[in-house]
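Changelog note: in this version the structure field was regenerated for every chain. One regenerated record is shown below for reference.
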Amino acid sequence: MAVSKGWRPAWFLPFFIIFLSGCALLIRSPINTDYKKSESPPGLYRGIFHVHSDHSHDSGASLEQIMNTAQDAGLDFVIVTDHNSIGGLKAFDQTSHPSKPLLIFGDEISAPDGHLIALGIRQHPPELPTSQAYIDWIHEEGGYAILAHPVCIRNPWKNWNVRNVDGMEIYNFAHSMYPENKIALATKASILTPKNFLRSLQKTPEKSLNKWKSEMKRTPLVAFGATDAHIHLQWAGLTPENFLLAFQSVTMYVHAEANTPEHIIHAVGQGKSFIAFEAQGTAQRFVFSAVSSHSRFHAGDTVRVETPVILFVRSPEVGEIRLLRDGEIVNQVTGTELSIEAPGPGRYHVEIYKNGKLWVLANPIYLYA
């Protein structure tokens, strides 16, 4: 029996029981195929953030497994963020691979105050004395610094006085399961389909959403949705874990010039993205835009308010659409479209709810006088 490195029996046993328990973990087919019915708008790419390969101490997932699983999920890209390693980048560069799905590599750094994901770097940092020093080093390397699972019960971020953080995870699928009753999880996994299992697990991340909105009052901060996908156990290439399930837990859509590492990293670092929980439905037809003087802008863009700015939201299905300005709701409708003239400068973002749960969250468009 080959057991992946870093296996910790004491805490993993409940999850092992879940992974052996039934329907949701044994059915390994895509929960959605809607994305195949129509092409995404030009320049919009569908992927996931925060996956661990066998270059992490706690995952046995090969790069080939990650690519194959991403293909099954219909993804354009996967952002791999191994623990204290960027070794996957060199291994990926040295092998032949398809252009889609694209693998992009970051580094989940164990900083003094918690886990810090670095995107856009090509080497692991030296050992540094403070979290601020790691953030500064990431920026010196031309990268982006993102707080991983900052308000979760395991490894939360401890120092919110650091400067120049670029983003934070407002949802982390793996960490969302830690507070759950393991017997209840096993029961759900044994009787529910993968889609319904994911729906049952997903809760609106109120605590992290509120923290994100609070921090945004002092500095721009990009919201990320993270799968935190691992493979902990496998025998001869077989695993009781449903890797595909994690890949479908939370999706990130990115507006970028092209599906290349440089363009995707720049776009996600600038907040040109939105998050979707696609167990509730695919979201490639979601639109959040600002129109001013015949120019159109999207999430992550900054717009000067010289003429009236029209903010437009289109939901792929009927949902509760909320338009927020500086963290406060300024307009709310139930339907598929919302369109208003912006009441003034501010930081505008969108949340859409279905069945009382967050479905889509778009990063802000910034309006200034």
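Spot check on this record: Residues 9-19 form the longest helix (11 residues). The first strand starts at residue 44 and ends at 51.
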